[in-house]
Every structure is written in structure tokens, then in C-alpha cells.
Amino acid sequence: MIKIKKISLKYTPQVIALLGAMLETLNPKEDTGDLINALNPQTFYKLGISSKILFNPQKWNIK
To answer: pLDDT in tens for each of the 63 residues of the chain?
Structure first.
């Protein structure tokens, strides 16, 4: 696991979701399993980021 993913697990779920979405946008083959598993699948995060910037906000419950 790259260091930033490990460090992000100590932060809020919004940070974890945003980082996971960013990493997958930059590298679709990035292993983000630990990040997605750290999130509650029933929680949505209102971050106000366009789907034009992140191609996968639905996966990360980002609105």
C-alpha cells in the first residue's frame, strides 16, 4: 500500500472517499480495496465535486 493510502485511513471518511476516487481517476488499475472497505456503504459524502473531474464519484458515494 502506498504511504498516502495508509495515512488517509487515519482521517475522516470524506478524505478516504476523495482520495480513493482521485487515485482511481489517475490510475484505474490502482488497488483501492482497503480504502473502499474502510467506508460505510450507506453513507454519502457531499463534496461538491463535478463528475467531469472524477470519473467514479458514484462508486465512492460522493455527491
So the answer is: 589 999 999 999 999 999 999 999 999 999 999 999 999 999 999 999 888 899 899 999 999
Q: Between the CA of residue 5 and those of 24, 30, 50, what are the distances in Å?
A: 12, 11, 23
Distance, CA of 13 to CA of 44 (rounded, Å): 10
DSSP string, 1-63: --HHHHHHTTS-HHHHHHHHHHHHHH-TT---HHHHHTS-TT--B-----TTT-S-TTTTTB-
The whole-angstrom separation of Cα 44 and Cα 63 is: 7
